[in-house]
Amino acid sequence: MAIDVERDGPVPARRGRPSGPTGSVVARALRMLDAFGPGRPALSLSDLARHAGVPLSTAHRLVAELTGWGALERDETGRYRIGLRMWELGALAPRGHALREIALPFLEDLSHVTRENVQLAVREGGELVFLERLAGSGAVPVLTRVGSRFALTATGVGLVLLAHAAAELQEEVLAAPVDRYSRFTVTDPARLRRMLADVRRDGYSVSDRQVTEDALSVGAPVHGARGRVVAAVSLVVRHGSAAPRALAPLVRTTARGISRALGS
Amino acid sequence: MAIDVERDGPVPARRGRPSGPTGSVVARALRMLDAFGPGRPALSLSDLARHAGVPLSTAHRLVAELTGWGALERDETGRYRIGLRMWELGALAPRGHALREIALPFLEDLSHVTRENVQLAVREGGELVFLERLAGSGAVPVLTRVGSRFALTATGVGLVLLAHAAAELQEEVLAAPVDRYSRFTVTDPARLRRMLADVRRDGYSVSDRQVTEDALSVGAPVHGARGRVVAAVSLVVRHGSAAPRALAPLVRTTARGISRALGS
Description:
The structure is a homodimer of 264-residue chains.
Chain A: H1 25-34, H2 45-52, H3 56-69, E1 72-74, E2 80-82, H4 84-90, H5 94-114, E3 117-124, E4 127-134, E5 149-151, H6 156-163, H7 167-175, H8 189-202, E6 205-208, E7 215-223, E8 229-238, H9 244-261
Antiparallel strand pairs in A: 1-2, 3-4, 3-8, 4-5, 6-7, 7-8
């Protein structure tokens, strides 16, 4: 499993923010695709033009190219949606579909045993992407959605992924304003730095009500074939129902099982 | 579920065939992505240049743009793979992930009851794409792979999708040479036209050893919210183990369940 890919570059620009008409024509076409997201599955031509920062005529031409290739499809209302061709190619991404397929049996075991929320995420630049979430019966509600992004600084999986990222990326993330989700969210860079050191020392992370005020999350790293941290697993339980120290061995065992299956 | 998308355009050029350095810069960048496939998950810069029909210097610049955006990632060997960003966006494709999620419980029911192969596919231009395949315990081996393409003329799902495509697309497909997979593959356009009429009349398709010589496949159409055929389901059993007429009600019931869940 080749999932030890290089994505340690600079923190990418936030998705979804309109940008000026800069960059090459390829960059503009790709920026149009960035307009789509879990909360924005269908967009009009003028939405796309606005997002890419190009005139309507340019947008029309770029959308025609993207639609012709299959990156976009027109729905019955005339709006555009992500096309099947993106799904086809996306299924080839080693860090998406393939990693999830390998991890799934281990995640299911953890879910069966605990009946709590189990999550799998990878880092993409200065954010994380959730690859899977199994909701335990009666588990605490969580904000996670498969395929959606989240800050690295708040969740159990995020703290693991950030703790094992390159030092420069950690500094970039900590130098930027840290998003707050609850009154327990840690936003002080110095305190976050100490938490990241703890994650590396202890082999697991603890996010105590930092995302929602009733949830505790414990995360552990998944290692790829070359030993690098390529993903993170977490167990999210109701705050007060269990101590992080009691959950850590369960999450770490699951993460090690997945690492072994990846050839670590 | 907005899966009634417009993809009734001309039959697209075969993927994977090298083309000359024609088309816009966006078309060339997209053509590079077409070089990837289930059997070709990792490619070098020169592979990509060759596939897109551009000089190495142009390929270098395009690959840098695609990698910067996240469409490609470099692996530990220096080769390129499909990036996580494609998986993220692909998860938004209504005809991919979302349709599969809705259909999965119905497919699982059919698989549990029959212990045979169950398949789900959609049409993409003049080919089909498999969205799911559940392999029954001890079921006959099939060539299907999720995310891969196949001819519309041979399989049970393909015959259903072709039978319900626009007349112009049917004629384009039948005018082109029809791929042969076994000595039972029907390649005569007149006979295929009669088979498609039977599919529309009977509500199910029969592919009798047309793909592999030991398999019989029976397919049925899935209708979207606006009544159009948006996908097809099939049951693939060992030839001689059951009559198509006996399998058809099972497959049709499953397809109707999915259609109902889609709001048909």
